[in-house]
Hints:
The protein is an alpha+beta fold. The chain is 64% helix and 15% strand. It has 12 helices and 8 strands. The strands form 2 sheets. A 5-stranded antiparallel sheet has the order 4-3-2-1-5. Helix 1 packs antiparallel against helix 3 (49-64), helix 3 (49-64) packs antiparallel against helix 4 (71-114) and helix 5 runs antiparallel to helix 8 (177-192). The chain starts with a helix and ends with a helix.
Amino acid sequence: MEDVLRPLVVxxxxxxxxxFIGWAVDWLLRRADARHPETxxxxxxxxxxxxxQVTVCTALLGGSYDKTEAEVVHEHGTAIGRLLALVxxxxxxxxxxxxxxxxxxxSYSRYASSxxxxxxxxxxxxxxxxxxxxVAAIVGVVAASAMLLTFPTMRTVGTSMLASAGIxxxxxxxxxxxxxxxxxxxxxxxxxxxxxxxxxxxxxxxWGTVEEITLTFLSxxxxxxxxxxxxxxxxTSKPFENWSRGGTQKVATVFFHLDxxxxxxxxRERLREIVRKSPAWDGRDWNLVVTDTTPSxxxxxxxxxxxxxxxxxxxxxxxREKMITWLRDTHPYALPRIATAPAAQPPQALLEGExxxxxxxxxxxxxxxxxxxxKDAQGPGRDY
Length: 384
């Protein structure tokens, strides 16, 4: 009977203590969150309840499993102890990642709620995201190393690896040159403020918004919901357009190819009406000027300011559509045309042409008259 009760007491007691500790910690965090609602740290720490319980339960079982005096423990005590040690290391790493993420996220939330500069908020968000990934990577590497060192054979291998660390470092550096380059490029992007999450960029002719930045790649969401994934080293080695750096305000331009008879002044008045009714216009500035001419058309440029790239695209399309519709309905002659009829000649050229025609007509008339006289004079002589 004791062989059955002792394992139940040890395992049941460990589970009971684990549940009590988890409930007590969660209760304290809820009270702290209710007293300090302006601090999101306590609410985010409540997500650490599960890894905390796994860590506590594994630690309790690891310290008391040999007290069960069960036959399985006597036969496989070493394997059970090593398994519990591995689970404890993994659970502790899980708990460390959750706690660090809660602290970093709460700090970012408090900063974002009090900051008034969207560009700085996006910069801090990018840095926070990469810090979380760096911390998770470091904790994962340390946990994996600790788990490997629990095996006696790996300790011997570790000693020999340390003896040849110089050679392995050179080999690893050559083999992982691209990976390490992307890693350092990611850190450079995070703390160099080159590009941030939420920035509007143009990369290889594609316009989109930076959606995710990791230590190795960067994801750009295009306007048509596609995702472009590029190595972060691209942004440290090649030029790209960042429309959000230095402010989100943009200038939208619309070009019209029109006939020389286009009513530019009336177009300017029509543009004023369009931009004043457009919610995408930020109210800063607008104008309409003729920027170029060709033998058949003129080039008219409309310029409108907007709050951000999205509004700039919207107001550009709106102005283009409404202006073309207005020209088509009220001034169709202003639209470009292709001339297929011969050009009209000036009056002086017409007069000279008529005089030349008259002279050619009189010359032909006299030539026919002289030819008839010549034939009449020669006709009878030939009959004889």
